Sequence to fold (203 residues):
Amino acid sequence: MHNIQEKDWAEDDWSSHTGMDADSDYCTSQTFNDGRQAEKDVACEKPAQQPFTIDYTFIRRGEAEIVFTFNERTIPVRALFFTDPLLDLTESALQLRKGAHNSSVVFIENSGEHQLVFKREQEGELTFEMRWFAKGEDVDQNPPNGYTVVFEGSTTVDAYSLQVLQILNNIDREPGVEQYKTKWINADFPSEAYCRLKMEMDS
Fold:
């Protein structure tokens, strides 16, 4: 997974490299190797939007890293054992599938917490923000609203639900339901919510 940021020319003079006006879906001309120029407009495709993905990894007993990726931007967040992020992700997906307009998941670590906040824009479409709330010695870094948006994008209810279901499927296989509590200490594998999400996805 790569976090590619090519801003050296893209922001300064995008149209000069593509032949396309920044607000246009078409190139105004096309130049061939021998210098000839096409007389008619040539359609130019903008890069396709990359999907929203979530990877869930146990770092050590009682600590997990959840990596979120959207449009080649990646942000890893940590979660500690006194929360239940796997259940919270599952319940969040279920709420949105039932028509909720908003849903959020909290990931708490030693220096603060991340909150993944979803907002329904239209039927099946979601926007999301990852908000960081610093605490302790870092609390003065918070803006007036108390948090900093460190990651944002868009997805769909189905795509988000599928990501959560894949995480649950993977953990169900390895380490498995019985071994999950040895990894997470204070919480069992969310079997009941897992079954409900599978039923929702199959319906």
User: Anything to note?
Assistant: Confidence is low (pLDDT under 50) at residues 1-29, 38-43. The beta strands are 26-27, 42-43, 53-60, 63-70, 73-80, 102-109, 112-122, 125-134, 148-156.
